[in-house]
Amino acid sequence: MTAEAALPGSAMRREWQRFTPRQRLMRYAVYLVAVAAVVESVRSVEIIPEFLEDAPAQIVDLFARMWPVDWSYYPKTVHAALIETLHIATLGTILALAMAVPVGLMAATNITPWPALRLFAKFILVSSRSVNSLVWALLFVAVFGPGGLAGTLAIAFRSIGFVGKLLAEALEEAQKGPVEALTATGAPWLTIILKAYWPQVQPSFWSIALFRWDINIRESAVLGLVGAGGIGMALDDALNLLYWDQVALTLLTIFTVVIAAEVLVTFIRSRII
Amino acid sequence: MTVRTNGVEGAAESRALVLRKLSKEYVRGKPVLRDVSIAFAGSGLTAIIGPSGTGKSTLIRCVNRLVEPSAGEILFLGQDLARLRGRALRGARRRIGMVFQEYNLVERLTALENVLCGRLGYVSPLRAWLRRFPQEDIDAAFDLLEAVGLADRAGQRADALSGGQRQRIGIARALMQRPDLLLADEPTSSLDPKTSVEIMELIVDLAGQRGIPVIVNIHNVELARRFAQRVIGMTGGSVVFDGPPDALRDEHLKQIYGGEAWL
After folding, report:
1. Which of A72, A98, A270, B213 has the most other CB atoms within 10 Å of its CB?
2. Predicted model pTM
3. How far apart are CA B65 and CA B84, in angstroms?
4. What is the per-residue pLDDT for B147?
C-alpha cells in the first residue's frame, strides 16, 4: 500500500484526519457539557437585569460619596489599627516560622525516614493550608474573643502549611555531600541538621519568611472583618456606619502599606539573599 | 585527650583494619561486594583500583557505615564496626577520617569552619551552633590549614576556593578528627593531573607524619603505583589482585579492567 502511494504520478488521494470519529464525538460532547455548565451557572446566580443596568450609576455614586477622603479619620482610628495589623502580621509570621520548622523537618523525605511521621506532617501542612485565614480567625475569635490575639493565631496557623511545605522542599533539594561528610565525622543528628542542612536551606528559609510576611500583611488587613483585630476593624466600622469617606481612607491606607511591604521585601531580598 | 605523639609503632599495630567476608547487596540477588576479606596494616597507604561500578566506593563506605553492609565483619580498634549502632557507631566514626571525590564541604561556611567541622563528633550541637569550639580545636584547625598550605584562606568561603584548594580543606577536615584511619574515595578524580599528584603527596605526608593508615580508592593506576605500598585490584565485587605495586603487571590490569587496547 505504501509502495503504491509512493509511486510518482499516481493521483491517489491520501486522507488524513487529526482525530478518529470516536474522538471527535467525545470532543463535541465535552463542548456541549461546558456550554450547559455555563448556562446553568448563570441561571443559579440569578442576575437581576435591573441591578445590572443600574451598576454604572452606582459606581459613580459610590466614588462621589467616597470623595473627599476623610483624612481626620487617620489619626483618630486608622493609625492605631494599622500598627495593630503590622503587629499581627509580624508576630503571626514569627510564630508560624517557629511551628513550621519541626513540621517541615518531619515532612522532608531525606530527613524523616518513617513514612507514618511524614504522612502526619503532610496532614498538618494540608489542614493548615486548606482552611482560609478568615475561617481560622472565626475559630480563634470564638476561643479567645475578638482582638489581635485571635488574628495573630489565625495568621500563624494559616502560614504553617505554606512555610512548612516550602521548607520541606528546600530541605529535600539540599545536596547530600556535606551531610555524608558530617555523618562520617561522627556528628550527632542535631549537629548534622544545624551544620549540614541549615547552611544550605538558609537563603530559601529567609526568602520564604519574607514572602510569607508580605502575604500576611495583606491577609491581616481583612481579619478585622470577622473581629480579629487590625485595620479591618476600622474598615468594618466605617462600612457599617456608611461613612464612605472613611472607607476610602482605610482602603487607601491598606493599599499604601501593601505596596510599602512589597517594596521593602524586594529590597531586603536583593540585599541579603 | 589522647594524642598519639609517640609510639607510632605500637599504635600502628592497633590501627589495623580487618574485613571478613564483607558483602553488600543494594538489590536482592545482585551483590556489589562478594565476601570480601582483606587485612589492612596499621600504617602505610593501600590503593584500591578497579573499574567504575565495581564496588570500590561501596567497600570504603561500608567501613564507616555510610553504607550498611549486608553481611560480614569490620574489625577495627577491637570492635566489629558492622554491629555498632547509635552512640557507639558515632564514636567509631570519629576515629575514621574521610576524604571525598566531590570534597563535600559545606559551601556557605568558611575554610576554617569547614576544617573545624572535623570536630563535630566531639562538640555538642549547641556549641557547634554557637560556633564555640574549644581553643585547642581552633589552634589545631589553624595549624592544619597551614599544613595544607591555605593559612591565608581561613576566612574565605568554601565556594570561593578552587577544586585543589577545596580538597586540601577536605583533607584538613579529616585530619582534624585526629583519626586512626583515613579513607579517601577517589580524592583526585575531579582534579587535574598536577593537582592530583600534589593532593596525593599531601595525603601521604600528613598521614605518614601522624602514623595514620590510609585506604584510597583510585582509578588512576599510575598514581596508585607511585604512592601506594600495597595495591588491591577489584573487579565485579571481588578482589582479583593483592600485592605491592611492583608486582602489578599488564595481565593483572587486563583482568581488573578487561580488554587491553587501553594499556
Report:
1. B213
2. 0.81
3. 9
4. 93
The burial class, CB within 10 Å (0-12 / 13-18 / 19+), for B91 is: middle
Q: What would the mean pLDDT of B42-59 be, rounded to a whole number?
A: 90
Sheet containing B30-40: which strands, arranged edge to edge? B30-40, B17-27, B71-76, B79-80
CA dihedral B210, B216, B222, B227 (to 10 degrees): 10
Residue whose entry in the numeric block shows the C-alpha cell 561522627: A186
Is residue B209 situated within a structural domain? no
**Chain A partners within 8 Å of B102 (Cβ):** 177
Cβ contact (<8 Å) for B93 and A183? yes
Cell (9 digits) for A171: 530541605
CB contact under 8 A, A178 and B107: yes
With CA atoms as reference, the chain A residue closest to B131 would be A195
Q: What is the pLDDT of residue A49?
A: 84
> How many domains in chain B?
1
Residue from A237, A238, A82 nearest A148 by CA: A82
Nearest to A79 by CA among A254, A261, A219, A238: A254
Q: Residue B232 to residues A110, B215, B229, B243, B256: CA-CA distances in angstroms?
A: 34, 10, 10, 7, 10
**Which run of H or of E encompasses B93?**
helix B86-94
| pLDDT for A8 beyond 60 | no
Q: Is B113 domain-assigned?
A: yes
Beta bridge partners of B184: B99, B216
* pLDDT level of residue A7 (50, 70, 90 thresholds): low
| Contact at CB, B104 and A180, closer than 8 angstroms | yes
Nearest 5°: the CA angle A250, A256, A260 is 145
Query: Is residue B21 included in any domain, yes or no?
Result: no
Average pLDDT (A209-219) is: 92
Model confidence at B5, in pLDDT bands (50, 70, 90)? very low
Please tell me if residue A185 touches chain B, with a CB cutoff of 8 Å: yes
Averaged pLDDT for residues A35-47: 91
CB atoms within 10 A of CB A168: 26
Characterise B258 by phi-psi region: left (phi > 0), alpha (psi -120 to 50), beta (else): left
pLDDT tens sequence across B175-222:
999 999 999 999 999 999 999 999 999 999 999 999 999 999 998 899
Domain range for B134 is 96-178
Domain with residue B150: its CATH number is: 3.40.50.300
Position B229 in a domain: no
User: Is A180 in Cβ contact with B173 (below 8 Å)?
Assistant: no
For the complex shown, is ipTM > 0.95? no
